[in-house]
Structures are given as C-alpha cells and as structure tokens.
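INFO batch 0412 | record 1 of 1 | parsing
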Amino acid sequence: MQKNDHANKTKDEEYSEYYDEEESYYSDEINEKPIKKSTQTLTQNKYAVLSDSLKSDDSESTFKSTVQSKISNKLLSTNTSKGRLSNQQIYAVTEPKISSRNFNKSPRSPISRNNTFSSDEDFDFDQYEEFVSGIAEKNQLPPDDYIESVEEYINQCIPKAIEHRNYKAAKRYQQASQNLQIITKSQAADVQYGTKDKLMFAQNKIREINEKYDKLIRYKLAEFNVLKNQLNEKISQEDQEFEEKWNSPQQINPFAKPSRQLLNLRIVENKYAEAGMFDEADAMRIRADKLEAQETKEARQQLFREMQKAFESLKANQNKQIEGLNDYRDREIHNLEIKRQKELNGVEKFAKRPDVANPTPKVRDAKLYKPRQKRYDIELKSYTLNLGKFNLKQVIHPETNRSPRSARRSPAI
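INFO prediction complete | emitting tokens
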C-alpha cells in the first residue's frame, strides 16, 4: 500500500507540473479517447470533452461545426453542482465575466460565462457563418439589420478559436473583422462624399437658378429697352407732326378770320378814299387798325390755348404709353423674381437639411478585435493535457503474500 501511495503521489506531482505549464504539446502516443468524466476538477472535465474535436487529426472540420454541434445537440448537458460543466459554460461565445461568487471557487474552477448565442434556439449558426464567409472572402456585407450582430459574433468567436487553438478559424474570423472595418470605413467615406455631393448639388442648383433668372431678367430688360426706344421714336415723330400741324395754314386760318365790325370799318375806309374824302378815310383807317390789332391778339391767344390743349392731350397719351411700358417691365421682372424665389425655396430647404448641411456625418465604424493578453494568460494556466484512459493494473501491481519458498523461486519484480 505504501508503494501504491508513492506511485499515486508521483503521478499527481507530474500532472501538476503539466497543468502549470503555459504551453504544452499533444503526444502522438497518448490515446485520443476522452477521459471519463469525474469530479477531479471542472477544468479537466472541460478540456477532456473538447479534446477530440480540437486536437484530433480530423481538425479539417472548422471551429464553427464544433461549436454548432456542441450547442445545438447539447451533448454535454451536465449538472454543475456535481462539478461538471454545462453547454452554456463550455461553448458560450461571449467573453467571461467574473462575478462575486466566483471568488470563492478554486483557481482551477471555470469562470461563468454569459451565453448570448448558444441559448437562443432561433439562432442560425449557418446563416451567420455564411455572413462571415461573405465578408472574409467576397467583401460582401450582410443585410443592415445583421451588421451589428455579425460584428459581435465575429469578435466573440475570435477569442474562442484562440482558446481552442483553432488558428485557422481564428485567422478566418480576424480577416472577416478586418474586412468589415475596411468596408464600413469605405461606406463612411461614401456617405461623407455623398453628403458633400448633395451639398455641392444644392449649391450648384442655386447657382443655376440664379443664372437662369438673371438671364431672363436681362432678356426682359433688353426687350424693354427696344420697346422704349421704339416709343421714344414714336413720341419724337408725334411732336414733330404736332408742330407741323399747328404751323400749317389749314390749322391757323380758322383763327385768322376778322370780325364783322372790322370788315365794315375797312369797307367804309375804302369808300371814303374812293370819294376823295381822305381825312375821313384816314380816321377810319386808324380806327380799323386798332380793332384789327386787338382781334389779332385775341386770335393768337385763342390759337395758343387750342394748341396747348392739343399738346397736353398728346403728351398725356405719350406718358400713358411710357407708364404702360414701365409697368410691363416691372411686372415681368417681378414675376420672374417670384418664380426664382419659389425654386430657390425648395433647394435652400434641401440644403438646410442636417444630412446635407453637415458635410461630416457620424457613421458607425466597425470595431476591430484586439486580443486581451491577460485573459489568455489565465486560460493557459488552466490548460490540461488529455492523457486518456489508463488501466491501473498495468501501472500498479498489488503486493501479494508469498511464501519464502515462492519468493526464492520467483525473482522480485
């Protein structure tokens, strides 16, 4: 019995040495079958269960199939109160969170984990793995509703792959994480460029509208100047015709007729002259001249009044035409300004929108996974070898009571 105790002690010491090593290698001579679940330690139980899928030569299967099969089929649903790990503890993809109750456990006890994906019966690993493959191989983003969850899924699978020493899967997830970051940054640049493009479009549109209506206004002003010149020529011609009209005999003769009294005086004057009564004729002439001068003055005044009245009427008509032309110009320009402002209001309202006025919008950026070295140090300390099953009869030979004769016959082993 003392020999057995010594042998057991030696094995325990050797096992402890292997357990405390930070890096270990699997031996080809060790049996690959998992050890029988026992209450030796929770950590031994955990790595004994994962040994076949992560250490065997059949490691061509990806990390995804290992996690998916373990979670979906629930092959290791054991009672944690008896010192065994549950599916949630072994295959949870979230980072470990140490609670206050874990400080009472031994250093080799596993840390409780929050199971984000494995406990969800509706979670589709195949779909998420397709998303990861699309990102890693084709730079193809999943639907917008899945981007954040796929990003979280990738960042949770990387440490699990490293923990299980499946570096091929870890490299794949890391490539997907890097591609996701590059694509999202590219999309952020596209959104920023698109925002600047929208702002530039609004500014160009405003400039085009102003140029268009400035051109129309210049066209209307040029048209007005032509009409104004034509009207000025027409006014000048009417003034000239008016002056010729009122200087013509036909226009003056109606006002040049003498009165009946003046005609009688001239008749009497002629009769006195023919009769040789020159003194009487001269007196009659003086009287007739005075009356003629008075009538001429009155006729000229009347002619001036009539001409002034006609001229005022002509000028009133001409001014009305000028005012009508000015009103037409102002009305046309006013209508163009209203149309200009109506078009500018829509573009200015578009340019004042937050997504257009701000050329640097905030866009979600993918978080690149960064390993936590301290966490891996803790897990390496809990790393154990899969020693497989041993037949204790091959290692420990129980002592038997032998007679002195048999002892002499058989050599001691």
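INFO post-check: The CA atoms of residues 15 and 58 lie 26 Å apart.
INFO record closed
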